[in-house]
Amino acid sequence: MLEWFVDSPTVAGPNSVFVTFVRLIAACLFGFLVAASYRLHRYPAPVPATFPLTLVLLSILIAMVMQVIDDRVARAFSLVGALSIVRFRTVLDDTQDIAFVIFAVVAGMASGTGAIGVAAIGSVVMIGTLWVSRLPVFGQSKSPLAVGAIPDADLALRTSVGTSEQHIKPLLETNLMSYRLLSAETTRGGSILEWRYAVQFKSDVTPADLIERCCKTDGIQNVEIKMRESCK
């Protein structure tokens, strides 16, 4: 009955334009569904202001790409080359955010190829899995910052090689209400360690106070504090 959803429109005409329009609208709706599920899953923690909208736009764009490819292998390789210049430079706070990006991409692919049923069923399964994963039996982290607290800022500490996190923790515990390690990596050819945290300040501690105390701590060479958008 809906065979026109399966075959990509290869001939310009009213019918093909209508099919393309319906598929892109479906991709948009699934994108909003992905964004809404992302916000609900991360609540009450704040989310980047632009990330949910990015998920919606990504779903629509992928659907457009699938329309352009239209089962043409050569065109597909050309698009891969053209899109390879795009890079995600934003550091995601949680590895689960990657799953939502893939969720939006797959929903866009399914909508763009006319597999609306696959996108709908997959979305139901995905949202159901997210709901089940929040049950206590899965033992989600109960740290204040992970569940109830709202991070005030991202803190980056650069220390000399050989400085362990145990050396930093007393400083963090003294000045912060809560904190969560986001990443740890080496820079400058392995001569510097960089620690990144999502932090919540104590009521009597300001970012300037924290910077001053970090500078007085042996081993810490550089401090960077980036306030979250929701706290500006």
Descriptive terms for the model:
Alpha-Beta Plaits; 51% helix; 4-stranded antiparallel β-sheet; alpha+beta
Write up what this structure looks like:
- The chain has 232 residues and is of the alpha+beta class.
- The protein folds into two domains: 3-138, no CATH class; 146-231, Alpha-Beta Plaits (2-Layer Sandwich).
- It has helices at 14-42, 51-69, 73-83, 96-112, 116-133, 144-147, 165-175, 207-215, and strands at residues 153-160, 176-187, 192-201, 220-227.
- A four-stranded antiparallel beta sheet has the order 2-3-1-4.
- Strand 2 (176-187) and strand 3 (192-201) form a beta hairpin.
- The longest helix is centred in the N-terminal third of the chain and has 29 residues, at 14-42.
Strand content: 15-25%
Report Rg: 23 Å
Continuous helix count:
8
Q: State the helicity in percent bands.
A: 40-55%
Question: Which stretches are low in confidence, meaning pLDDT under 50 for 5 or more residues running?
Answer: 4-12, 139-148
Give a count of the beta strands, DSSP E runs of length 2 or more: 4
| Strand adjacency order, main sheet | 2-3-1-4
Question: Class by helix and strand content?
Answer: alpha+beta
**Mean of all residue-level pLDDT scores:** 75
How many domain modules?
Answer: 2
- What general outline do the C-alpha atoms trace? elongated
Distance between the termini: 53 Å
